[in-house]
Write a structure and sequence with these properties.
Length: 448
Amino acid sequence: GGGGRVEGRPVVLADGTYASVMAVDESADKGDGAPKLRGLLVGGDYFLATVVATTLTKLALRSRAHLPLPATNMVAADVMLILTGMLQMGKAGQAGQAIDTDSQERLTTYLHLLSSPGEDVQQLCLVHCHEAFSAMLSERASQEEGDRPAAESVPEVNRQADDLIVVRQLKGGKAETAALEFDDDDDIVASATGAFKGELDFAARLKRVTQLTGLSDPVYAEAYVLVHSYDIMLDVLVINQTQEPMVNLCLELATVGDLKLCERPTAYNLAPGESKHIKANIKVSSTETGIVFGSIVYDAQGAAPAPAGGENRNCVVLNDLHIDIMDYIAPASCTDLAFRAMWAEFEWENKVAVNTDIGEVKDFLEHVLKSTNMRCLTPPAALEGDSGFLAANLYAKSIFGEDALVNVSVEKRIDGKICGYIRIRSKTQGIALSLGDKITLKQKGPAA
């Protein structure tokens, strides 16, 4: 009669009949005779042991202001006895329950502090530690207040319920004659993500233009890349630079990565010197650096007939078009606990060795933040001061809901060079590799 809880569950026997198996749960009575705190300490929770040691040490030091000296010495002796017992328990524990080096060092430090409890020791433990903890709580509260949306803010209406839904892929060919004349293109440009957000002037558009052919090719082509949510729109300007008309000119594209073309190529006729805007829509399904490649094929009129009665089919190969991963990544925030949980869970890791011309660790961190469009989760107070090493956690989230975790750990050597590693973790391989390639390309410095 231990008072355990009796539980029953049905089981299927070998002949197919059902039977009931009874079991007594003794877990409720286990350890009732020992205090909960002692059970955790004996079980090997040495982080809790350091917390207990910190609390007892501060209580012993605080008692010096309220008790006579002999009584305070007795309190300090009792606390030192408890700390010594925890150290001996950690060293005599099993292999899986041996005390870790950090906890052992902290317990030893508190023993030294209690053995010589001067005025400076009391000031350190009772005043400076309290001020540092209060500053950390204030900074965390202000950060949470900044991340919390304002209660009085009115939600912005993106689309009305009775607005017309326009699908570009279902429009006819005649509707695609101008560069950006669709009714919904204004909204698309306005909602463009990444580095292009809010930049609608001419200079910003020029940054998004990529030359696809050479100036001496018979067909000159350049592409204006616009990324919005899950779509990439290519506005390709094609110019006939010959003195002969081009018949059945066709822009043939192919993709590498998680990119998918939405439309079949359409044939056009170009007079000498005539230009044409050809649009291509590409669907994106994950955050990784995609590559678009292809060619322009056309029939040349007026040229010498091809041998054996063949057609005068010409082909101009286009330069590769790399879709930047930064267009899909936006800075985000999460708690330290969530960051550690994701860091332990995510299986894809990309480790990039630091190779930069930047001379200061803080400047290097700022450059990485600017290059990767990520947010630094490490509080500014932890990065203050003049130090030769730095460790910081960065976090970003893609428009597809994927998490990107980055840990920057760098050190300034005696010769002035910065060394260290940048570790990237994510749930998918694409974002880890693409972000690593981006950092490798940009880490040299602002001019790189």
